[in-house]
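Worked example

This section walks through a single chain of length 141. The input is the sequence exactly as stored; nothing has been trimmed or padded.
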Amino acid sequence: MSDPREVRRTDFRVLRELPTRWADVDVYGHVNNVVHYSFFDTAVNGWLIEATGTDIRSLPAIGLVAETSCRYLGELQFPTTVTAGLALEHLGTSSVIYRLALFDDGDGPAAVGRFVHVYVDRSTRRPVRVPESIRTAVQQL
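Given that input, the structure is written out below as C-alpha cells.
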C-alpha cells in the first residue's frame, strides 16, 4: 500500500459494521485512538468465529496478538457505524497478518492498520501451525 489515503472499501473482501459507543468519545469530541485497536480486534475475531463456524476460544491453538499498528487519517465520531475492512496480508506457518481499514461515511479510510496473530499451543504457549479451520477461512480473504 503506497498511499493509505487511496485505500477503498472495494479493496476488502470482508466488511464488518461496528457501531461507535458514547464511551468511545474522548475529551476532544472524537473516538479516542485506542478504540481503533478494539475495532480491529473485534472485526478480526468476530469474523473468524463466523467464518469458521466455531468458537475460536475452544481450539487447542489460540491466536495471540503479536503486533498491531494503526495509521490515523481522519476522525471517527459518535454516533456512527464504522465499517471495518479485512484482507489477508500474509499467511505463514504459525501466523496470520491481516490488513485492515476503518471507514465512516466516505469511501476513503479514517484509519488503516495491520494485525498479527501468532498461533500458540493453549497450554505451552509455544508456536504451532495455524489451525486448519483458521487457515481455510483466512485463505478466503
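What to look for: The chain has one domain: 10-139.
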